[in-house]
Amino acid sequence: MNIAAHRRAADHLRGLLRRTRNDYSAGHERPLGGYLAAMGGFTAYTAAWAAAVRLRGRPLPERPVPWDVVLTSVATFRLSRLLSKASVTSPLRAPFTTYAGPQGPAELHEEAREEDGRGTVGELVTCPFCLSVWVASTLTAGQLLWPRATRTAMGALTALAGADALQLAYSVLSDRATGDDDDEDEDEDGGEED
After folding, report:
1. Which residues, other chains included, contact 89 with Cβ-Cβ below 8 Å and sequence gap of 6+?
2. Helix H or strand E segment including 160
3. Cα gap 99→110, rounded to integer Å
4. What stretch of H or E contains 112?
5. What does pTM read for this prediction?
6. pLDDT-derived band of residue 164, with 50, 70 and 90 as boundaries?
7. What is the mean pLDDT of the chain?
8. Which of 148, 175, 172 is nearest to 68 (CA)?
9. Hey, what's the torsion of the CAs at 14, 20, 26, 30, to 10 degrees?
């Protein structure tokens, strides 16, 4: 194939991709190229873990152990929220996000930066649902490569999730016992505090 034919094929492909992006976006700004790069990055990441597991000669389990699935689920939930929402981890997200305000107990609301192509990474690192795919893959690989250390870390994350649930439950019960909820409700309704 000569150079002119390569250029025509490349131009045709670019045109096809541009039309697909425009048709899909329906007038909205959607960073499909960034998402494609993120999918490629995730594919490379999991391929590297799979290669490490294979090189170590670790056999894959026939099926997941139910307790490991529960432990991985809770640890994934907690680590994903810790990485994507916690105040203390905001320096990790700062290059890709801007602070928008508080969001729930000890959590932040941040928005992805759009400049310099950082939007896709910003979306990823502020979305616990998006980040959980990476976290679950990492914890699964960790269980295959370093099962004892990984289960210990997952146990700590699960304990942290349990402690968080207890803290929130205590706050609700404390507010009910002291009547703090009633005062807030009256203020919202235009009533006066006692």
Report:
1. 82, 83
2. helix 147-178
3. 5
4. strand 108-112
5. 0.79
6. very high
7. 88
8. 148
9. -70
CB 106 within 8 Å of CB 50 = no
On the CB side of 183, how many CA atoms lie within 13 Å of its CA? 8
Contact 69, 102 (CB under 8 A): no
For every residue of 31-72, DSSP letters joined together read -HHHHHHHHHHHHHHHHHHHHHHHHHTPPPPSS--HHHHHHH
pLDDT greater at residue 82 or residue 179: 82
What does the block give as tokens for 76?
């994934």
Sign of CA dihedral 55, 58, 61, 62: positive
Structure tokens at 190: 């235009």
Tokens describing residue 129:
């649902």
